[in-house]
Amino acid sequence: MSAAHPLPETEHDGETLWQRELREQFPIVTAHPELAYLDSAATSQKPRAVLEAVQTYLTTSNANAGRGTYPWANRTTELVEGTRERVKEFLHDPEPDRSAVHFTSGTTEGLRTVARDWLAPYLTDGDEILVPHADHRANLDPWLEVQRLLAERGVGVRVRALPYQAVSGDYDHRRLGEVVGPRTRFVAATHVHHVYGGDMNVHRIRAAVGPDVPICLDAAQSVGHLPLGLDDPALDVDFVVFSGHKAMALPGTGAVWARNARGPVFRPAGWRGTPNTVGIVSLRTALDWLDAAGPDRIARWTAGLTTRLTDRLRHLDPYEILGCPSSLAADTALPAAQRRHGIVTFRHRDIPSDDLGFILYSHGFMVRADSLCQAGAGERDGSVRVSLHVYNTVEEIDRLLAVLASLT
Predict the structure, then answer these.
(1) How far is CA 305 from CA 50, 136, 154, 191, in A?
(2) pTM (predicted TM-score)
């Protein structure tokens, strides 16, 4: 393996023991040793700490937040408000007194909330926005919806596509200067691509658009999978939107972090109603668990598994691995940002992707096999996606490779 992402060579290696201890904390994983869950980009499995926190909350202090004055209600309100601050802490927010965290059902709702409640009132006739046309649909449809809504009001907004590199799937940062103009008011971008698994180098977008244009970051595939530090000047974004269920919390919860430094203060419109208190409890515990495990160690482990898979799969003739071809070999010297982050997507030359998904499940592998919700300018054909987390093992990758090799 490369020096950047080595994997342990023996079962007594410190990292192997660390990973094994973490894996044992996932009841659904340990209950099914015959199965390998390889679909964490869709949703992550939940550690015992999260499940127990939910059970404890529901059996000791379940109540509505911000509605009552009795102890259970007060405790729930404290949990909700405390989790806002916990999200800021987890993201290493350098100015927590200036920012805000709002809870949503997930990334999709979060991005749409930013689009309708913040971006639409912010734009004026003739403004331009840059948005991704080959990322997840959730990071394209809301911005096109804003364009349609404003057009109905007589406000013309131009939507321009972020340019992509044809081979790698990364944003084409050299061509960004061609689409940025004096009326560029907003950029929507993705941190880690849900198909190609690459870091999309958002810092280069900031360099291209200048210091005054707000950037909204879809972090669905990075929060909980690798370190995300907003105290890093290179990650100068205004919104971070993510889903709790991809970060080891329960489904139906997510968050929008808003810096409130460029443009108006972000406030979701309308009466918000009852929050998903159980989901918020799970999110707080999940963030605690991830911090204790070490996001940097999790990222190194999954990157090592990813490199092992791509380095060997690229030698199997029937398979095409999507994304940057120079990131496939373990001995390729690449900056860490260009390595794949726990996601490998591929096709078989002769076997349709949905059929390949069924074949792999018959051997105990749970993968994603379809169009992967990619927006219109993305891949036209279906593919198989293997997405990893800290509970996955070297042995699972080697078994998967053996099955894939048998299909050549």
Answers:
(1) 25, 24, 52, 20
(2) 0.94
**CB-based contact 263:237 (threshold 8 Å):** no
pLDDT in tens, 120-135: 999 999 999 999 999 9
Q: What is the fold of 52-292?
A: Aspartate Aminotransferase; domain 2 (3.40.640)
Alpha-carbon distance 139 to 190, whole Å?
A: 8
Residues 137, 117: Cα–Cα separation, whole Å:
19
DSSP 179-200: H--TTEEEEEEESB-TTT-BB-
Distance CA 46, CA 54 (A): 11
Distance between CA atoms of residues 327 and 323, nearest Å: 8
Task: Classify domain 14-46+294-406 by CATH architecture.
Answer: Alpha-Beta Complex (3.90)
CB atoms within 10 A of CB 155: 16
Neighbours of 5 (CB within 10 A): 20
Tell me if 336 sits within 8 A of 4, measured CB to CB: yes
